[in-house]
Amino acid sequence: RWVRNSAEYQALALQTYRVAADRVAELARGRPAGTWAVILDADETVLDNSEYQRRRALLDSGYTEPTWNAWVRERAAAATPGAVEFARAVRAAGGRIAIVTNRAEAVCADTRANLAAVGVAADVVLCQPPGESDKNPRFRRVQE
Fold it and tell me: Quick check: helix, strand or coil at residue 79?
């Protein structure tokens, strides 16, 4: 409820992303465009899944993989406040956007579509392959 309705959450998310955008602009100076990237997580970092949470709460129920995957397939998550502007700032400074998420590979196309629909043009979206819960191998793939 707080995430969905409070002015404080909106302000904190926007402030965080604005500070990050300022810092990216500083760090990008002198770096050739396209040679660096920012890695972000999808859920509750770029995509706001509070609607999924709200729906589950109405049912007095929590997360389940089938309901989560159905939610992801809806492609209905909104952008976290400030995320779109931050992604644009990264692009304007010459950077790329990499999303590393533990969303299942089976819903990765839907994740990419949802990101694009909210205005986050990710260069790469790396979802969780079967049997790989650790994100570190995916972080290494971004570097490579």
Answer: strand
